Amino acid sequence: MVFKDHERDLIEELINAGVDFAVIGGAAVVLHDHERERPDLDLLIDPNPGNLDRLEDVDVTWLHFSDRKIADLKKPGALLEMKNMGLDILTEMKGVSTTESIAERIFVSADGLMVPVISLDHLIQAKRAAGEDKDMADVEALEAMRGLPLAMPREP
Hints:
Beta Polymerase, domain 2; 7 strands; alpha+beta; three-stranded antiparallel beta sheet
């Protein structure tokens, strides 16, 4: 199992609501077949207002996308942190274009879902731009995996 139950529920609801997003960060590293611990779930959401408005249709018991939260996400560089649930939702990240990252995401089968995940190239660029020790360790591992097939099924 890749995701905790509450994370899987959120991802499924985002997919069902038609929200354009991609898993990024440590979970994306795991979904690209590098085993490592991850303390949270990071999601990159397309900041297009129409896309963000679809968050109103997301229904999980532990998170309600209020009008205020959606309005906050419409601001440039928005970040919604829910530390108690281990969730970060971003509309921008260092080193890569959100538009390109969403357009070029891949879909990986995990926990019964086809999960949208940032591409390997964009993940490496973002990790390099973040520049922390853990990110650079991820870059090294991900670079070594370039050209290898994913163990988990994926769609382009």
